[in-house]
Amino acid sequence: MALQSDLKMHLAGGFTTVARCWAIIRKDGQRYGFTDHDLDLSFEGFTFRADTGLSAVSLEQSTGLSIDNTEALGALSDTSVSEADIDAGRFDGAEVMCWLANWSDVAERSLLFRGSIGELRRAGGAFQAELRGLTEALNRPVGRVYQKPCTAVLGDAACGVDLDVAGYHAIRPIEGVEDARVFRWSEMTEFEPAWFTRGTLRVQSGSGEGLNGLIKRDTFDGGLRVVELWEPIRALLQVGDQVRLEAGCDKRFDTCRLKFVNLVNFQGFPDIPGDDWMMSYPRQGADNSGGSLRG
């Protein structure tokens, strides 16, 4: 509050020396600082660089539950925001903060915006980022879903399965890769076919380190194990790069019981009645077990 009060006094003085400062924290922990001032500024553990070309286009904020949003423009460069990092999705969902600061005394500053990066577009050597305020989270549906399949995510707190246990993951160097989407190994027979279907492939080294993709299919083809992703990893992958394959789950009761021995944490309702049961009615001489009406 003292910092904001000092800034208000500065703004009330008529002659002002203020600049906007932007901080970005990616999900992998990488931190960036930008400012529209002509010199670098430093505070809050960030160095806000002046030669990045980042600027705000618009800022909308409210006191109600409507979504705060803003946009920022910037130039792509190898030393700040690179085209390769944007293509790889490394800035997706990154945390963003914006301050209005007195560049002659950065102790006088006020936090204007806090949120995350939404849609990010690039063209002509520049990028345009949609920034979403904290109220964006209020649009997410919450509450329990009653359905036959499990609603937990494999490995999360509700599920409780430890994917670091032997048998639930495999770490291998890439032996063959096609379009950053189809991977092949000659010796990986210790896991059953389709063991990794619906699982996750995580890149642990090389240019794609930190990126991951969802596994669409896990099969054997002529002695080779073939793992296919739903979408390509958005980075240049090479033979020898280390990847981690994590077992997949189809959310079924039997899979939880037999594959993961985790029935006590099953988050679905396998015995919940279906639509046919809701529409059934008693009939003389017919099977009234609650099964399909077409039986």
TrEMBL record:
<dbReference type="InterPro" id="IPR018964">
    <property type="entry name" value="Phage_phiJL001_Gp84_C"/>
</dbReference>
<dbReference type="Pfam" id="PF09931">
    <property type="entry name" value="Phage_phiJL001_Gp84_N"/>
</dbReference>
<protein>
    <recommendedName>
        <fullName>Bacteriophage phiJL001 Gp84 C-terminal domain-containing protein</fullName>
    </recommendedName>
</protein>
<dbReference type="Pfam" id="PF09356">
    <property type="entry name" value="Phage_BR0599"/>
</dbReference>
<dbReference type="InterPro" id="IPR011928">
    <property type="entry name" value="Phage_phiJL001_Gp84"/>
</dbReference>
<feature type="domain" description="Bacteriophage phiJL001 Gp84 C-terminal">
    <location>
        <begin position="195"/>
        <end position="276"/>
    </location>
</feature>
